């Protein structure tokens, strides 16, 4: 069989493409299980390592910080070695971390384990995003990227239940040793089933040194448009789900069961809204930033309504808050579509890693700032008043990210205009539609 025939038989959107994607999704779902496993075992972890809840929260911070700081290095390695190697290698690293966690009783060993898990997790999702761009037609990429993210959210809910059951029935060593075994199986699946592109193992030739992809991606305004889009949409959701949402809901007067139910609403909202945002992104590529700005503005408005309440907010308002925060997850994935649209395939991993670092870097700052505000607030610890001050700090980060997005969008549109793609004002587009004339046209080729 000739190379052309091989490419045609295993090309973009083929049955082989779906097999590659599904294998990568399994590995990503397992990565999400590793990422969230410590969070559902907090009581057992506190007993095993003899630490307080405050110290226990630093394990999450360490893992999240490693994940964020590893985004650009992981993206560079992804461009160099491809998705197959990064997904399989990351799975092995995470399995090693869980294996260490299953046997250690030392707090230092636990920190090292979470560092390994954060490092292994860092490249998994961006490697899946790169696979989607390599294996599927451009029109399908936004929706499939969203579905990839949804898989992780759904896996987080489904995976926690059996893990907790095994933890309670068989103990810490068996539960986390089992996670290590699952991680090795995920690595084997990725190695056997994932291929970097329809043409096989080849990757574009690069020149200019190790940092050349970073410099090229950083010079592209569209990359920064993706960075600020991801930061603006992602950090409020991470602040809520990964750190302070649950105790905030308890301070609002909810029971632990009700608080857990409200937290689940955010996950459900992400799963439901992901395909919708993916389709809107594909249909209206010139208006992608409006999806991000619209979502972020809605989140800010609902947060403001919750924080200005004279007493505890009504339950329906807290449910609404969780829902709009959940939509922020899929909205942040629009940033990856900007990275794909405005970067060459040779630096796509680097650009995607840079974008992915936006939301997580802002989340680390937000979580730390909220923690400082809670610690220094006068009065009862973790009171509703303290949480209102802590969450109000989000406003500063929101303004910084929104300003960055608008500046990057202006620069991106100026560059697009120099390349012959002019983005007409919304009022002009609406006027044309009312007049029955032609609407926007945008080429969804390599550049879009």
From TrEMBL:
<dbReference type="InterPro" id="IPR036259">
    <property type="entry name" value="MFS_trans_sf"/>
</dbReference>
<feature type="transmembrane region" description="Helical">
    <location>
        <begin position="290"/>
        <end position="310"/>
    </location>
</feature>
<protein>
    <submittedName>
        <fullName>MFS transporter</fullName>
    </submittedName>
</protein>
<feature type="domain" description="Major facilitator superfamily (MFS) profile">
    <location>
        <begin position="20"/>
        <end position="413"/>
    </location>
</feature>
<feature type="transmembrane region" description="Helical">
    <location>
        <begin position="49"/>
        <end position="69"/>
    </location>
</feature>
<dbReference type="InterPro" id="IPR011701">
    <property type="entry name" value="MFS"/>
</dbReference>
<feature type="transmembrane region" description="Helical">
    <location>
        <begin position="81"/>
        <end position="103"/>
    </location>
</feature>
<feature type="transmembrane region" description="Helical">
    <location>
        <begin position="316"/>
        <end position="339"/>
    </location>
</feature>
<dbReference type="InterPro" id="IPR050189">
    <property type="entry name" value="MFS_Efflux_Transporters"/>
</dbReference>
<feature type="transmembrane region" description="Helical">
    <location>
        <begin position="18"/>
        <end position="37"/>
    </location>
</feature>
<keyword id="KW-0812">Transmembrane</keyword>
<feature type="transmembrane region" description="Helical">
    <location>
        <begin position="115"/>
        <end position="136"/>
    </location>
</feature>
<dbReference type="Pfam" id="PF07690">
    <property type="entry name" value="MFS_1"/>
</dbReference>
<feature type="transmembrane region" description="Helical">
    <location>
        <begin position="351"/>
        <end position="374"/>
    </location>
</feature>
<keyword id="KW-1133">Transmembrane helix</keyword>
<feature type="transmembrane region" description="Helical">
    <location>
        <begin position="386"/>
        <end position="408"/>
    </location>
</feature>
<feature type="transmembrane region" description="Helical">
    <location>
        <begin position="258"/>
        <end position="278"/>
    </location>
</feature>
<dbReference type="InterPro" id="IPR020846">
    <property type="entry name" value="MFS_dom"/>
</dbReference>
<feature type="transmembrane region" description="Helical">
    <location>
        <begin position="172"/>
        <end position="194"/>
    </location>
</feature>
<feature type="transmembrane region" description="Helical">
    <location>
        <begin position="225"/>
        <end position="246"/>
    </location>
</feature>
<keyword id="KW-1003">Cell membrane</keyword>
<keyword id="KW-0472">Membrane</keyword>
């Amino acid at each position: 069989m000739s190379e052309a025939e091989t490419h045609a038989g295993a090309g973009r959107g083929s049955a082989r493409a779906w097999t590659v994607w599904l294998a990568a999704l399994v590995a990503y779902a397992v990565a999400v299980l590793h990422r969230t496993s410590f969070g559902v075992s907090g009581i057992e972890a506190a007993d095993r390592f003899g630490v307080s809840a405050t110290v226990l929260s630093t394990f999450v911070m360490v893992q999240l910080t490693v994940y964020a700081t590893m985004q650009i290095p992981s993206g560079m390695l992804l461009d160099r070695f491809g998705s197959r190697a990064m997904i399989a290698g990351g799975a092995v690293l995470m399995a090693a971390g869980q294996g260490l966690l299953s046997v250690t009783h030392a707090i230092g060993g636990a920190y090292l384990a979470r560092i390994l898990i954060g490092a292994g997790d860092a490249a998994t999702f961006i490697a899946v995003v790169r696979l989607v761009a390599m294996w599927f037609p451009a029109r399908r990429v936004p929706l499939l990227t969203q579905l990839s993210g949804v898989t992780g959210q759904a896996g987080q809910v489904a995976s926690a239940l059996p893990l907790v059951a095994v933890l309670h029935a068989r103990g810490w060593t068996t539960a986390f040793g089992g996670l290590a075994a699952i991680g090795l199986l995920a690595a084997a699946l990725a190695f056997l089933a994932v291929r970097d592109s329809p043409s096989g193992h080849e990757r574009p030739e690069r020149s200019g040194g190790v940092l050349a992809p970073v410099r090229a991606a950083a010079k592209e305004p569209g990359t920064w448009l993706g960075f600020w889009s991801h930061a603006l949409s992602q950090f409020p959701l991470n602040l809520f789900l990964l750190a302070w949402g649950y105790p905030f809901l308890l301070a609002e007067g909810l029971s632990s069961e009700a608080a857990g139910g409200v937290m689940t609403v955010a996950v459900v909202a992400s799963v439901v809204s992901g395909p919708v945002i993916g389709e809107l992104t594909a249909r209206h590529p010139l208006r992608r930033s409006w999806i991000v700005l619209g979502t972020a503005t809605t989140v800010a408005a609902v947060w403001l309504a919750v924080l200005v309440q004279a007493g505890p907010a009504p339950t329906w308002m807290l449910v609404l808050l969780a829902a709009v925060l959940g939509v922020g997850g899929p909205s942040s994935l629009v940033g990856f579509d900007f990275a794909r649209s405005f970067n060459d395939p040779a630096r796509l991993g680097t650009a995607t890693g840079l974008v992915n670092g936006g939301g997580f870097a802002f989340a680390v700052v937000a979580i730390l700032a909220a923690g400082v505000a809670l610690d220094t607030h006068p009065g009862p610890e973790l009171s509703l008043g303290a949480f209102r001050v802590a969450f109000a700090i989000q406003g500063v980060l929101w303004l910084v990210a929104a300003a960055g997005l608008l500046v990057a969008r202006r620069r991106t549109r100026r560059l697009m205009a120099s390349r012959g793609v002019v983005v007409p004002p919304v009022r002009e587009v609406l006027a044309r539609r009312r007049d029955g004339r032609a609407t926007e046209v945008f080429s969804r080729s390599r550049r879009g």
